[in-house]
Records
---
Amino acid sequence: MTSALSTLRWSESFDQIDRAIVARHRLNGDHSAHDHDFMEMAVVLGGEAIHRCSDGETPIHKGSAVLLRPGSWHAYLRCQDLDVLNFCFPVSMARDEWRHLLDERVRAMLRSREGLQLTRVSDRTAEALDVLERVARNTSGDLGLVIWALDQFAATVPERTSLHPAVERAVREFEEQPSRPWTADVLAQAVGLDKAYLSRLFKAQVGVGPMAYLAILRAERAASLLRNSEMNCGEVGYAVGYADANLFSRRFRARFGVSPSAYRNRARG
C-alpha cells in the first residue's frame, strides 16, 4: 500500500491556508493511501469501511475517529457510503493561535508525537457533529466546531503519560525561547542532564531528537508569523532563530513544501 503513497500538502490542498478546514465526504470503493503535512482528524458519521494504516486494518463505522499527525499515512478500503467529516489544520495553528482556547488534555494530545490515534466517539457525539456540520458557519464557527471536536476526541483516548521532567523542561525551553541559539550542549546544560542520555530519552518520549523537534517548532512558529504579522521573511526567520535567511528558507521548505514567501502569498491571496 505504501508504494503508492501520495502526500497532501496544506499549501496545495486549500485556498485559504490561514484557517482550519472542515469538509465532509461520502466515499465508496477503495481510496488510496496518503499522508499529510498537516493535522487531520476524521470522524465517521455513517456507512462503513476498512481503515488501513501502519498498524494494520480496522473496520470503521459510525463514531469511529482517527487523528493523524503530519507524515502518518492511512487509506480507506471497501467504503460503503462512508460519511466522514474531516477537520484539517496546521500544527502551528494549535501551537500558537489556539493555545489559549484548548484545554491541557487537548494540548497534550496534540503535542504527542504518536503518529496516528484511532478511537471511537459516542453515537451522540457523531449525531451532534452531523447536525452542527449542516449549520451555516463563518470562520469563527468553523474554529469552534474544530475545538469542540478535538475536545470530544481527547476525552476518549488515554491521557498521555507524563514526560520525564528533563524532557518536559526541554520542550518548554524550546517553546518559550525558540530563537535562542540552541545546541545539544546548551540544552543539556539548561536541563541538567547528560547530552547523550537526554537525546535518547527525548527521542524515546517525543518521537524525534531534540534538534529535530526544535526545527519543526521553529518552522511552525514561522508559519504563524507569516500568516499573522507584517514582518518580512528575513525578520520572521530571525525571530524564530535563523540569522541566515537561506538556511531559514531551506528548513521552512523542508517542513511545508514551499518557500516562506510562497507560503505568505498563498495565505494572503
Note: The chain has two domains: 2-154, 165-268.
---
Amino acid sequence: MITTPEILRNLKIETLNKMQEAVLDAGKKSGDILLLSPTGSGKTLGFLLSILQGIDTSKEGIQALIIVPSRELGIQIEQVFKQMKTGLKVNCCYGGHSTKIEKQNLEQAPTLLIGTPGRLAFHIRNGYVNTDTIRLIVLDEFDKALEFGFKEDMSFIIFSLKNLQKRILTSATNMTAIPDFTGVKNSVTLNFLAKNNKPVALKLKTVQTETADKLDAFIGLICKLGATSSIVFCNHREAVGRISDLLRDKGVDHAIFHGGLEQDEREKTLIKFRNGSTRLLITTDLASRGLDIPEIENVIHYQLPATEDVFIHRNGRTARMQATGTAYLLLGEKEYVPAFIKEKPIAETISGKRILPENPIWCTVYVAAGKKDKINKMDIVGLFLQKGKLQKEELGLIEVLDHTAYAAVNRNKVDSLLTLIKNEKIKNKSVKIGIATA
C-alpha cells in the first residue's frame, strides 16, 4: 500500500494541516466521524487518506463509498484520488453520464466508488453494485445533500450496506441534528469551523444602488475591480441570464454556471475558470461549495443570500487558507444588510470613468480526443510546441478528460497555432481542434 508521504509528493503537498491530521487519527479508532470544516480547507484529502487506512488490498470488491450532492464534487474527488496514484481503481457515477458506460465500468468492481445519491441508488437497485463488501461510507457535504432533497435515496443506499463499519459525515456548517437514517453512533465531532464563520482575511463591503435594478451598479463595480477573478452569486437562473446578456452586449468575457446547463457545458465552464481564460463567473448557489475552482479574489452577492449558511458558503470561495479576498453585497433601493451579518460592512463608492476589464491573456483550445483515445498531456504539449510553434510560456494549464482535452493558450497566438496544426495528427489520428466557445 502506498504511504502518506508518497501520496503527498504525488500531490505536491509538503505537509498535512491540523484538520487532515485529526481525521487520520480519528480514522484509526472505532466509531463514526462528523467532520465540520470550511470550504477549501482540504476535507477531501483528509477523508481520502482515512479511507486508505481501512483498505485491504488483498480483498476484491467495493470497500468504500462516497456519496456527494453534485456531479462536479464527485468528479473533483475522483480526480484527487487519481492524482494520489494509489494504484487502486476508482469509479464515479452521476446523473447526466451514460448509465451503460457506468455499468460496464462496474463489472470490474472498483475499490472506491463515488456518486450522487440518485445514480448510486439506480445501480444498487439494478444489481450493478454489490454492497456486501462495502465497509466504509463518506457522506460528503451531507447538509447540502439533504437540502437538495436526497434523503430518500441516501436512506435506501445506507440501508443496503449490511456490513458497514464506519461512517464519515462532512459539512461546511454546523449541524444541529443528524438524521437517524444515517446510522451514526459513537461518533466523534471534529469541529474546525471558525466561531464567527468568517475567514480572517475576508473584507466585507456594500454597494448601494439608487434603484431596484442593480445592473448599472454591477457594471460599475466590475469596471472598478478590473482584471481580477470574481464570482457573482444569484438566487435564480433568470438573474444569471440577465447579467450574462448584458455582459455579452458589452463584450465582457465571462462564463455562466447553473443546474440548467448540460454536464459538458458545466465541465467546460469550470475548466476555463481554472485555467484563467475566464475571470468572471456568474452563477447560482450551485457553485458555492464542492467545486474545484481556484482562489477567487472577489465574491459579489448580486442577489442577497437567503440564510446565513448560504452567505458563509458563498464567501468560502475566497479568503481561503492564507489568501485574502473581498465580498461585496449589492443593495437595491429598498434592500438592507441581512440581520445575520453582524459585522458592519464598508461602503464602496462607484464613481469615475468606467473602463471595462480587458479580456484574459489566455484562451481555451479544445482537442476532440482524450484519455479513452490514449491521448495524454504530453501529446498535446508536443503538438502545440513543435508543430504549433508555441513557446512554453505561451501554453498554460492542460486538462485531459475521457473524450476531450482543453488547453489554455496565449490569446494572441491562438489563430497562428490553429493554422499551423490544421492538418496535423495526434498519434496518427486526425483530431478536431478549435476554440472552446461558451
Note: The longest helix spans residues 71-84.
